[in-house]
Amino acid sequence: MMSEAFRLIETGGDPRIHLALDYSVLLPLLLSRLGLESAPFLSRYPQAGTVLKYLDLDYRLIQRQVKEELQLEKQQVGSSGDPKAGQFESGTAEDRARIVLAELSRLEQRERDHATQTKRTGSPADRSSLLDNQIFRQELTTIIVVLTLRCRRPIIDIQSLIQSLRAVRDPGALIYAIVANNPTEFSPTIDTLLDSDDRYSNVKDILPRLCKLADYRTWDVRQRLVNRKVFPNLAIELTIEHCHDEIGFMNRILKGQPEWLTNSRGPVTRTSMTSIMEFVFSSLNDELTSDHPDNVAINRLLRILSGMVGLMGLSLTAEQLEISLGVLEMSPAEPCTVNFKVCLILMSAAQLLKYSESRTRRILRQLLDCADSPQVLMLWIYLQSKLMPKIDEFASRALSMEIVVPRMGLMELVAFFTTLFTDKELASCALGFGRPTTSSPYKTNGSSAPTAATSSIKYTSSSEASELRSVSNFCVSHLLDRGVFIRSSTDVRTWVLDQIQATDVPLDDNMIPLLQAYTKAISKSERITRIPEHDIRTFFANPCQDLTPAKVLLTLYMLLNNEVCLENLGLDSSSRNREYDATLLQYVQIRKVLLFVQEFQGGVAFKAVQPMFLKLVNSQFPELFDVSTLLLEEENRVSSSAVIQSSHSPRRRASGLSFMTLISTPHATSAESSAWVETHYRSLEQHLLYPEDAIKAYYAFQRLPQADRQMLAGSIVQMSLPSLLDPESDPTVMEVFKKTWDQLNTIMPHDLWAMTVDALLPRSSNSFLPLNFMTTVPSSSSQGGTGGSFQQHNQLPYQQKRKDVYTFEWLVQDPLLLFKVDPRVFRTPTIFRLFIQILGAVMVGSRHWFRKQFTASQAILNSHQNMVPIQTQKHRVFKESNLTALLYIQDSSIVQLLFEICQRRPEDVEEALLAQQQQDEAAAAAASSYSDDEFHGHGHSHGHHQRNRKNSTAAGPSRKPSSQGKEPHLQGPISEVLKEIQIVTFNFLHQLFIDFKILPKMIHFQGYSPELLPATLAGMESLHVCMDFLHELLFATPAAATILPAGPPGGVNGTSVTSSTGSMLAGGPGAGALASSSTGSIIAGDGGIVPNGNMPSAAAAAAAAAAAASSSSDLTLRLFALRLSVLVCERYPLERTQEMARNFILERMGAFAISSNYSPEVLDSAKILARAFPSMHTEIIRVLQDAYGQERQRELDDFIESVNQMTSDPALWNKSLL
C-alpha cells in the first residue's frame, strides 16, 4: 500500500481519488500541498495536528535567527555547545524548529570539514545527542521533514543533509521519511548512499527499506549495485524477494562480472549461494523429469551451476550430484550444450568421480561421440600435455567468464583420461569433425583413413565451419605429435589434402602446426604416407593459373617435408625416398608462390607463414635470393612502363617461321594472349627493321595476365634472344626486352634461366648433353637420392620431355656449360648482364646442389659403414675439405673464364689505333719477352664486318697465336662495349670475392692476363685483400704457387671444355690435383688423400707432366706477382704498402730481374713503383744497379733517366700521399 501511495504521488496523481492508500508517511508533503481543507481525509492520521503546527511557522524568521546564531558561534560570542534535550523539551514549536535547524546546519558544516580531511575517524564526538534521543524521535522526524519542505538551499540541501545524518545512530527512519516526502530525491539518495558506503555501516539495511517504499524501483537499485560492484548479497536478496529473475540475473552476473561475487568488499555469503543453488537444482530436476525439456533453460542452468561451483568452490550434496549426473546423461541437442556439460565436469570432477566413476566414464564417451563437438578431445589433449592454462581458457570462453578450474579435480582427471579412450577412438574422432562437405577429387592410392559418420549438423555460417576446421587441425596436429595415428595405423594423407584444399584466407593459425606435425610423422613411420607427387601435379594441373591459398599451403608442405628429410639424413635411410624432387617444386614455380605470399592482400593474408616460407625457400633454393634481382623486382614493381606510341605504319615482310609453332605449352591460351599473337608476334621477328613496333610488342606483352605471360615466355625468349645478338639491334629494343625478362624472372626464374641459356646457344650446339649426364642418372637413382634431378625428367614443365635443351639441373651440376653460349653474348652488354645474372644464380645453386649431394652420400656411407672394411672406408671417403676444394676449383675456373672474356681483342681496339697496331704487331712481339701463353683466346668467332663498329656487339676474328704460341700485346684504348663488359664482370667478381675471401688469393696464385691488372684493381675494391698475401705470392715456390690449376679447363666456347662436376668427382680431366708444399699431400681426382710417397703410377705420371708445365710458366707467374705488387702499391700508396715495398718487393724485383734474363717487365714494374712512391726512387735504382751487369748498362741508364725525369715533376710529389 505504501509503495502504491508513493508511486501515485511521484507520478503526480491525486490522493483524494485513492483514499484507501496509506498516506501516513507522506502526510507532511500532502498537507503542505493540499491543506486539511482540501484533503479532509488526512485528519484521520493522529500526527496531522503536529505536522500542521510546524507547517504554519515562519521559517524565514527561523532561518535568519539560525544564521545569526551560527555567526555568533563562529565569533565565539554565543554558546557553541549542542542544545540539550531539556531546551528542546521546554521550548515552543518555533524554538524546537530553530534548535533542529541549527543542529542540522552544524552537522552539515561538520561534514564539509570532514570531507576536506584525508582520514575520517567517525569518533563519538561527531554524534548528535539531540537527534539520537529516542524520546523525541517521532517529533524530530516530523520537524526535519517539514524543514526539507519549507527551508531550501543554502540552509537545507537534502543530499547534504543525508550525508550529514551519518552522525545519527540509526538514520534509516529519518532518510525513509525524507525520501517519502521528496519523491524526486529517490535516485539521488540511492547514489549518495552507495557512494558513501564506507561512512554508513547500515546502508545494507537502509536500501531494502527504500526498495519497500518504491518496489517498482528495485530493478534500478539492483543495477546500481551491479554497476558499482558492491553488496552482492543485497543484490541476491533483492532478486529473490522482489525481482524473482534468479536465472537471468545470475547468468548476466557470471558472464560480465563474476569477480563481484568473490571480491573483498562484502563477498557473497554461502547463505545467499545456497538459496540460488536450491533454485537451480530445483529447476534442473524439473527439466530432468519433464517429457519435453527446454534445452535453452538447461544450458542456462548448467552455466550458472558450473560458474558457481568453480567460483565459490561449493560442495554438492548427494542429491545434487545425482541430479547433475542425470542432466549430464541427457543427449545433448547442440554443441554448446556439450560445452556446458564439459565445464560442469571440470568444475566438479573430484566430486563426480568420487560419487560414480563408471557413470562419469560413460558420460565422457557419449560426449566424445557427439557430432562436430571436439570439446572432450581437446580436453584429452590439454590434460595429456599438462596445459592447465589452456583448460582455464577453454572454460572461461565456454562460460563467458574469467574462471580458474579447480586443480585438484584436474589432477584426478589426468589419471582418469589416461585409460579412458583408445588410440583408434581418438583418431576416428579427430578425423570425423571439421571435414569439408565435399571430399577432395585428388584421390590417393591405398586405404583411406577411418572416419566417423558424416556430420548431420548444418552450419549456420561459413565462420562456424572454419572455426571447426581450425579446432580439427589443432587436434590432429597434437595427436600426430603424440603418435596416436601411428599406433592406431591410421593414415591421415587424404584428410590432410582435404584440409589443404578447403583452406582460405584468413589463414588458420593451426594449419601450419598441422603440416609440421604431418611431415614429422611421415619421417617416423611408414604408416603415415606422404601426398603422392601425382596428386600434387594434378592439383597444379596448370602452373600458369592464378595461385590460391590451398596451393600455397601445398607448396609449404613440400618444403617442410624436404626440410625434415634433410634433417633426418643418416638417421633413417628410408626417409630419402620420401623427399620431393627439386623439379617438382620448380614445376609449381616456387618463385611465383613466394611472390604471391609476399604480395597477396598486401602481405597480410600470409603474414604468419611468410617468415617460415622465406626460410625454407632460402635453404632449399638459395639461388632465388639474389640481392640484385630483388632490387630489380622492387624497381619494376614501383615503376610504371609507358607505352611507346608510334605513328609509323611499317610494311610487313613475310615470316619464315610461324609463331604458333613455338608455343610449347599444352594449355589453351586466353583471348588476350591470342590477340597479342595476332597483333604483335611478327614485330619481334622484324625488330631490326621496325624497332618501334617491337618495343610496343614487348610493352603489350608486359600488360598481359600473368598466366598468359608464363605460357608465352618460352616463345618470346626463343624468338628474341638470337636476333638481339645482331650488332644492328636497337639498344632501346634490348632494354625493353630486358625489362620483359626481369618481369618473367620474378615468377618463373628456373624455367626462364634454362630458356635463356638454350636460346643463346649456337644453333649447332643446342643438342649438346653434359658429359656427366649418363653417369648422373644411375648414381642418383641407385642412392634414392635427394637430388635425383633426372629421375622424373619426363615431367619437366618447360622442356616437355625434350632432351636436346639445357635444364637448370644440368647447369647447377656443371656451371661451365653456360660458357658454351654464342660468343657474341660476351660483347653484347645488355644480354651479358642477363648472362651474369644467370651465372650468379647457377653458382649459388651449384654449391647448394653439391653440398646436398655430399650430405646425402655421407648419410648413406654412415648407414653402411658397418658393412664395409675399415681400410676401404678410409680409402674411399670423400671429406668436407675435398668438397670445398672441388667447389673452389669450379669457382676459380669460372673466374678465369670471365677474366678471359674481359681481355681485349683486336676488334675491341678503336678504329684509329687498329691499323697502327697491326703494323707494329711483329715488332711488338719481338721486343716483348713476356708471354701470356696461359690465357688462350676464343676458339670460335664470326667474321669481321668492315663497317662502323662504334656500337658493335659482334665478335671479331679470332686471335692467332704466334709461332711461339704467344699472343701480341694489344695497345691503345678499348671500346665502350668492352668497358661496359668489364664493369659488369668486375661488379660481379667484387661481390664474389667478398662472399668467398679465399678466392682472390687462389685466383692471383694462378695468375691471369697482366693487362687486366690495372682494370681489376680499379674496378674491384675487394682486391685490397691482395696486400695480405703479396709476401707469399712473391716468395712462392713453384709447388706452392700451384694451389689450383693455373688456368681454366678450356677456352670460352672451345670444344675442350670438360665437365667441372661429374668428371671432377670421377677423377676425370677436370679433376686436377691440389698440391701443397705445407701438407706434403695431394688431393687426388677420386677425392682421396694420397701421400706423396705412396702415389699410384698413373697419378705420378700426371704429376710429372704437371710439374713440367709448371716450370715453363713459373717465370710468367713471378712477373705477374711483381706486376700485381707494384700496382697494389700504386693503387694504395699507404705506409703499409711502402713498408712492404722496402721489405720484400725491392728484394724480389732484383731477383726477378736476374731470373727473367732482365725482362723489360721488371723495369716497367720498377717505374710503376717509383711513380707510387717518388721518395723511394733512389732505393729502386740502387737495387736494379746491383742486379744489372755492365752488358745491360744501357737499358739501366735509360730507365734511370726516365725515372729521374718522372720524379722531378712536382705534380707527382703532390699526388703522392706519403
From TrEMBL:
To which species is this protein native? Answer: Linnemannia schmuckeri
The record's subcellular locations are: Nucleus
Transmembrane feature ranges: none
Q: What is this protein called?
A: Integrator complex subunit 2
User: Residue spans with biased composition (Polar residues)?
Assistant: 951-965
What the record says about family reads: Belongs to the Integrator subunit 2 family.
Span list, region Disordered: 925-971
The organism's place on the tree of life at top rank? Eukaryota
What GO biological process terms does the UniProt entry carry, in alphabetical order? snRNA 3'-end processing
A single GO cellular-component term on record: integrator complex
Q: Where is the composition biased (Basic residues)?
A: 938-950
Q: What keywords would UniProt list here?
A: Nucleus
